[in-house]
Amino acid sequence: MRILVVEDEPRLAVQLDVALRAAGYAVDLAADGRNALHAGEVEPYDAVVLDLGLPVIDGLTVLQRWRAAGRTMPVLILTARDAWHEKVAGIDAGADDYLTKPFHMEELLARVRALIRRAAGQADTRLACGPVVLDTRASRVTVDGRVLTLTGHEFRVLDYLMHRPGEIVSRSELVEHIYAQDYDRDSNTIEVFVGRLRKKLPPGMIETVRGLGYRLACPPQT
Amino acid sequence: MSATNLTPPPAGGWRGSLRLRLLAGTLAWIVATLAVSGWALAQLFGQHLTRQFEAELSTHLDQLAANLVVDAAGAPALRGPLGDPRFARPYSGLYWQADRLANDAGPAERGVLRARSLWDAVLVVPADALADGERHVHRVEGPDGEPLRMIERVLRPAEQPERPLRLVVAADERHLTQPVERFNGMLAAALALLGAGLAAAAVAQVWIGLRPLARLREVLADVREGRAAAIDGRFPTEVQPLVDEFNGVLARNAEIVARARTQAGNLAHAVKTPLAVLANAAAGESGPFATLVAEQVGAARTQVDHHLARARAAAAVASPGQRTPLAPVLEGLMRVMARVHGERGLALELAPCPDGLAFRGEAQDLHEMLGNLLDNACKWARRRVEVRALKRDGLFAVEIDDDGPGLAPALREEVFGRGVRADERAPGSGLGLAITRELARLYGGDVTLDASPAGGLRATLVLPRA
Question: A5, A87, A106: best mutation site toward chain B, by most B Cβ within 10 Å?
Fold first, then answer.
């Protein structure tokens, strides 16, 4: 899962970056409205954490332009502006949630998780596929109750697929959602990650759909 | 900040009323002018009639003198009758008489020759010294007891110059006073009518002239009651500058409030982001230092929230002429609640607002009060939150019901205390209810907590209606 963090206070941006990475997300940072606007328009983010008081272009304007351009990714507004009329303005500009500073990082993570889950149409915080269970709150994967050790990239690939069970996910889509923008991308590495995941997961769970991509097949629970 | 007192001080007698001042001045002037001109006209007419009356008597006197002859025996006689027939009719009111004056040649003889109209009466002429050619006017009593005006002269007959005669012509004075009285009566009536007309015109003029002020007062009341944001419409050129100035003051007031709020918001923003950084940094560490930082960040946050809320409350109610429709605010807040508490899948129900329901106050304050109460209800609700707006006499109420655990009656007042939280586990600074009550009371409303029929707590916010 790839997240855009728009925050002009560098220390807070770093803290968000660290916390979100630790939770298993690929994170892009934008420090002003113009960069944020551009990034949100061209990159397929799974969620955005958006500050409102931004240099160059105001956060609300950025959000409105994204929505006007048909960008539907979930957006969490993270701002110090805590007056209720400002919250109404934020939600009406197209935000999906609103969190005011100062905040607890755990709460931010919980809300980001919830946004991604809701956007994917998942109700439960625990995603299950056969014997494999991904606990989005703990960023932990178990197979038959046994904890699976995964690298960050492996976790992101599995996380993305688990949010879309039964759907065909192309390699390029995976690339876009597991790497941060500044990362040296190579779609061949996806095959490496999928290969490693297949070794760790029960056999046959990740199917290759020739010419299209991958699909997560969930065997019915016994 | 107390509610601004805009009611006018009680008017101090006529000095307090522009209308009475104008009317008193105009009416005093009308009465004085009419009285003086009435008196002058009456005088003029009276004098004119008197002169005419006396001139007529003089003419009769001259005629008498011209017709008077003295025979050889020294007895005066008329050469022929005098022209006016009234001299011949008894007690007609017009008389003449000739007296012989006393001197060395003989004693005074009254009424040696008299008009037939005198019949057998003799006019008693007050004794006075008459030089030749002089005419004196006297008032005497006539034969019928009537008041007479009398004119006299001395005649020395050529035949008997040593025995001068006093010739007297007298006429009933009522012939003079009656027309003057009639004239004065008519004059008084005419002037009274004129005065009444002028007074009515003055009243009408003052009323019409001051009507824009009455209209201004109505519009000002609208502004105060929140039905209008500024004074609308054109007023007479004498009043318009006042209106423009007042509108300017209103606009400036609103601007100052807006700027104060923006500055408070900016300050909060500037302080809260570093607080967030500090709190996050501390959360990543363990040990006494991290605990201290976390604790102090919490305290600082409470302080910032408190003072920001105070700044917002201080700006509240300061400017009259505010009107905020209720429905859009409630709908907006419900959208926020649906998102912010979306994870909990609450059923949020907003009953349709009565038409045209509006708050007499500032939109941000209404957002703040309702937002805090709704947020509270959503935090505690199990499954549903119901919101309903009701019209009351000059006020409106918003009832917010939740099906949460509710609150013990003993705690329902206590939670309005600043920083008191019913449960430390729930997020929030604990200021929301205190601020909501403070704002509501500043606007002359209130907020109360009761048991809800839905099972949890009912918060009722009562505010003035615009």
Answer: A87
Considering the domain delimited by A126-216, tell me its CATH architecture: Orthogonal Bundle (1.10)
Strand B358-359 relative to strand A2-6, pairing:
unpaired
Q: What span, in angstroms and rounded, lies between the C-alpha atoms of B448 and B462?
A: 9
Distance CA B184, CA B180 (A): 6
> What is the tens place of the pLDDT at every residue in B139-186?
888 888 889 999 999 888 887 788 888 899 999 999 889 999 999 999
Q: Which residue has the tokens 């002239």?
A: B209
**Residue B281 distance to chain A (closest CA, Å):** 8
As a whole number, mean pLDDT of residues B240-265 equals: 84
Q: Looking at domain A2-119, which CATH architecture does it have?
A: 3-Layer(aba) Sandwich (3.40)
Cβ count near B452 (within 10 Å): 21
Note the pTM of the prediction, 2 decimals: 0.64
> Considering chain B, what percentage of its residues have pLDDT values greater than 70?
92
Using CA atoms, how far residue B65 sits from B124, B164, B291, in Å, is: 19, 12, 141
B283–A105: do the CB atoms touch at under 8 Å?
yes
Q: Which residues of A touch B330 (CB under 8 A)?
A: none
Q: Are strands B384-392 and B347-350 parallel, antiparallel or unpaired?
A: parallel
Task: Find residue A208's DSSP bridge partners.
Answer: A214
Listed in sequence order, the residues at least 6 apart from A80 whose beta carbon sits closer than 8 Å to its beta carbon are: A53, A100, A101, B268, B269, B270, B271, B272, B273, B276
Quick check: A84 and B269 CB within 8 A?
no
Nearest to A177 by CA among A198, A193, A160: A160
Domain ranges in chain A? 2-119, 126-216
DSSP-assigned beta bridge partners for residue B171: B94, B149
Whether residue B265 and residue A81 make contact (CB cut-off 8 A), yes or no, is: yes
How high is the ipTM of this complex?
Answer: 0.78
Give percent of chain B with pLDDT exceeding 90: 31
CA distance B115 to B57: 14
B299 interfacial to chain A (CB closer than 8 Å): no
A152 Rama class: left (phi>0) / alpha (psi -120 to 50) / beta: alpha
The shortest C-alpha distance from A203 to chain B (Å) reads 35
Of residues B269, B333, B363, nearest to A53 (C-beta) = B269
The structure tokens listed for A3 are 């997240």
